[in-house]
Every structure is written in C-alpha cells, then in structure tokens.
C-alpha cells in the first residue's frame, strides 16, 4: 500500500500546477495575438511619382586651357639703341601708342640725304626735258641730226626715272625714321619689358621687346577625344536627340564657377596625332580679368538635348550587386515590380533615365527599403503625407500580455 501524502503538501502541489498552466496559456495567447496583429497590418504604403519624357541636355565636362583673344610680340623693325620707354609694365596700351624710342640720328641723316638726292634728280630732269623740247623743232627742220634729238629725249626720260627712284629712297628713309618710334600693334595689356633703355636692338632679333595680350574677350581651347566625338555624332542619329546651343560654363582651378557664359566658336577639322583629341574653341567675356592665358579650367556644356529622357528623383534609383540601376514601379493590382533601367548621370536631384521606363508609369520613390517583388502595396503620391499606424493586432497582444502578467 502506497504512502499517503499529508494534506498540506497535496494542496501546495495543486497550487503550483495551476500557476504553471496559467503562465503557459498566457504566453501562448500573447504569441497568437502578435502573429494575428502582424497578419492584419495591411499593404505597405509607398509614395510614387508619375514620369513623363522631358527635354534633358546631354552635358559634357572637358578640360580646357585659356588662350588670349589676341597676342602680339612687339619687335623692332630697325636697329639702334633704345633711348626711352613710354609705358608702364602691366598697363593697358592702345593700338598705335608709342612704346619705345630708338635713337633716330642715323635715320634722320638718311632722310636728309634722300631729300637732297631727290632735289638733284629733279634739277637734272628739268634740264634734260628743256633740252629735248628745244631739239624737237630743230629736228623737224633738219637743223640738227635726228639722232641728237633721240638722245636728248632718252636723257630726259632717264632723268624722270631717276627722280622716281630718289623719291622711293626718300620714302624708305622716312619709313625707317618712323620705325624708330615702336608702336603697339594691338590694344591690350602689356607685360614686362624685355629690353631697357640703352639696350641695342636689331631688326631680326629673336627676343621680343614686350608682349601684348588682349584678355577681354578671351578664348578657351577645349580638348575632346575623337572617340567621344564619334559617340556624340552617333547619338545625334538616334531618335529624340537633337543638337543643343553651344553655351559653355567654366569651373576654375579652385572649384568655383566662372560667372560668365561663353559660346563655342568653332571645332577643329583634324585630330591631333599626339593626343588623339579635337580642339573646340569657346569665347568668353572677361571684364574683370579673372581668366588669364595658360590657366587650366573645366568646361561644362550641352552638346545635345535628349527629348525622350525621364527625370527620376535620386531616392527612387537603387543599384544591384552588378551595379545596374533598378527602380520599383507600381504594377497591376497595386503590386511592386522591380525594373532595370539605364541611368548613367544625374542632373540636380534627379537621375536621367534613358531606357527602361514608359510615359505615365508610377515610379516608387518613398518606402522602398523593405519592398520585395510582387509585394502588395498602397501607392499614394509622393507629395502626400505618410501615415504610419501600429498593427491592428498589437492591442490584443498587449492586452494578453497584461492579462498574463
């Protein structure tokens, strides 16, 4: 016969068994309530934008180098010693302004000699002309030999030719005298002088006296590879791509933008054999003299306009492990559909999508973090406020937990 437990111990065991049963039921009810709440949460609310094709410029950023609009090396056209300089280094000089004075002594003497030779030739020409005029009637009357008249007439014509020669020599001497004052060939800013007072200059010397450059307007020579130019020309043959106006913006060496907008003047008709590039020349206004010859810049301009591109806000574009651009669109039955697109560049806050979308499609740009293909969604315009509500089953779960406690 089995031993009988005391009454107090039987009552304690029953109490513990009842408490364990209550805790198990409470925990099970809480778990069921949570699962039920998650299942009744409804579709995910997402924000979308409706995309339509728009005209988007096909921009290009290339390196360029600043070149003076005009440049002239001031050189002497006669030899001599420089006696005086008439300009300040770095100043603006005007076309025709005298820059240097070369010693004119020898050239003044040459002018005086040429003038005397011309006067002598004119006197000889007058005497020869009078002699020929006197011989003419005598030759007609056969008072003198016809040959004497012919000789007198020839001497008169030779004397006239001598006058013309001496006059030309006088003009040359006067031109050389004028060249002793070295003028500015163009209007622009002159650099440092490479010859000082007392320096001997010659007609065929290698070094210039100074260099003048016109900086307003100014040129920027832009280098574009021949391969990129071929790709651009092929793009123009594609439907929806048209040439753009040749407006150019500049980014300076410090990263700041140059305030003025320039225009492309022309493109070279040949490829540089050493670099494989084609030179585009743009013209800019440079009133403040910010751009200086030799400066490197970045040129940004639109070579074409794509009239069939889509602008998608940047949050709407993601990348897969292979780097392909993907978007989520609202599919039939309000379900999320992943789409691979071509998006190679951005403009402001938007990606430029050239392939993969159709006009009027709804692209999801909000709430895409946890989307999966064929997920049921609740699409609303991206500008609408996003209301996030707790799961419906949460209240039951909380009540069950409170009850269990």
Helices, strands, pairings?
Elements: H1 7-39, E1 44-50, E2 54-74, E3 80-85, E4 92-93, E5 98-102, H2 105-140, H3 146-178, E6 181-183, E7 188-190, E8 200-201, E9 210-225, H4 226-236, E10 241-243, E11 247-251, E12 262-267, E13 277-284, E14 296-313, E15 318-319, E16 325-331, E17 335-347, E18 350-355, E19 362-366, E20 377-381, H5 394-404
Parallel strand pairs: 1-20
Antiparallel strand pairs: 1-19, 2-9, 2-14, 3-5, 3-8, 4-7, 5-6, 7-9, 9-13, 10-14, 11-12, 11-14, 12-13, 14-18, 15-16, 16-17, 16-19, 17-18
Would you mind describing this structure in some detail?
The chain has 405 residues and is an alpha+beta fold. Helices cover 31% and strands 35% of the residues. It has 5 helices and 20 strands. The chain has a 6-stranded antiparallel beta barrel. Strands 6-5-3-8 form a 4-stranded antiparallel beta sheet, with no helix packed on it. Strand 17 (335-347) and strand 18 form a beta hairpin. It is elongated and about 140 Å long.
Q: Characteristics of this structure?
A:
single chain; 405 residues; alpha+beta; six-stranded antiparallel beta barrel; four-stranded antiparallel beta sheet; 5 helices; 20 strands; 31% helix; 35% strand; elongated; disordered N terminus; disordered C terminus
Based on the structure, what is the oligomeric state of the protein chains? Answer: single chain
- Helix count equals 5
Number of strands: 20
Radius of gyration using CA atoms only: 48 Å
Compact overview of the structure:
By secondary structure, this protein is an alpha+beta fold.
